[in-house]
Amino acid sequence: MPTTLTPPRMRIAEASERTGLSGHTLRYYEQERLFVNPVERDGAGHRVFSEEQIQWLLVCSKMRSSGMSLDHIRRYAELMRGGPATVGERYEILREHEQKVRDQLAELQAALDVIEHKIAFYAEQMAEGTADQAWRNGPNCSSPI
Amino acid sequence: MPTTLTPPRMRIAEASERTGLSGHTLRYYEQERLFVNPVERDGAGHRVFSEEQIQWLLVCSKMRSSGMSLDHIRRYAELMRGGPATVGERYEILREHEQKVRDQLAELQAALDVIEHKIAFYAEQMAEGTADQAWRNGPNCSSPI
DNA sequence: CCTTGACTTCGAGTCGACTCGAAGGCGTAC
DNA sequence: GTACGCCTTCGAGTCGACTCGAAGTCAAGG
For B119, which of A95, A105, A134 is closest by C-beta distance? Predict the structure, then answer.
């Protein structure tokens, strides 16, 4: 079998490079049935990925980075295989995940507000020279600084 | 020993309620030396938390929810015990964490953009009736929908 | 033919932060 | 005095998603 593949198809090393997912992870994803279409094999039994699968992996990657579980991705992939009839359920899954992502954003933003507040407090402290009032309680600034 | 404590001090059940952290978690945090000041005990050996400790736990909670590790929180708590001399290092820790939170926000936002894009696509699909063109590839819309 | 290197399968190990449950102590209410 | 409920310590278990490593296969290059 050829050492290079006709362009839209590639082996695991390139798929790994393209997606930022390790080869181990790519195999794991196949085993977990996360692909919409089966991963093909060449004569040597090596995996061959299509461009479409790379795009799908990039989507998976975004879903993962926003906290979607492999369970949910698997379900979504199943629905993809189900064709147009499953569009409604796919939509629902995405809507649900969208809400989770918004919740996470809000949570992070709330934390960021606290962090910034403390940073500002410390910046002021440090500007005041090596002041010894590090333990004061200003308004809205209960001690755990 | 009294069944209720003088207001600013409370036992684990109330501390749990106030902070949203389970009693198990509160004990675990003490064991992990996450508190700035030692958790006191009453005559029966029960933990007694101060209002200040509740405030600190609320801060820890925000740090945790934004992904700060217990290791980093422990370090921060140590620095708190070190007094004013450690303000600079505390500032640095917060700055570093701030950046991580901003990175997470950006990552989530990028994922959200993809999700919204797909949601809009599906919404359109569904509006067009049960169209059978679910597999089309529009511009900027490579197939893994 | 032999080496090289990219690949294969398989099973086991890792990670942090909880989370749980068993066994027991203490003080109050009845 | 005994039942109750809240607390204690301790050690073990859980979770998902990797991550690793051993042992083996295959094709091409020299």
Answer: A95
CATH number of the domain enclosing A16: 1.10.1660.10
ipTM of the complex: 0.86
Look at A8 and B139; give whichever has higher pLDDT.
A8
- Distance in Å from the first CA to the final CA of chain A: 64
B144 in any annotated domain: no
**Residue B49 falls within a domain, yes or no?**
yes
Check residue B128 and give its pLDDT. Answer: 79
B13 touches strand D (CB under 7 A): yes
Nucleotides of chain C in contact with protein CB (under 7 A) are: 6-10, 16-21, 25-29
Decide if pLDDT at A67 tops 90. yes
Burial of B105 (0-12, 13-18, 19+ CB in 10 A): middle
**Could you tell me if residue A144 is left (phi over 0), alpha (psi between -120 and 50 degrees) or otherwise beta?**
beta
User: Is A119 a domain residue?
Assistant: yes
Residue nearest to nucleotide D18 (CA to C1'): A25
A106 touches chain B (CB under 8 A): no
Residue B59 lies in a domain: yes
Token digits of residue B65: 């929810």
Domain span including residue A60: 9-127
B4-23 burial, b if ≥16 CB within 10 A, otherwise e? eeeeebbbbeebbebbebee
Question: Which bin fits B33, alpha (ψ -120 to 50), beta or left (φ > 0)?
Answer: left
Q: How many domains does chain A have?
A: 1
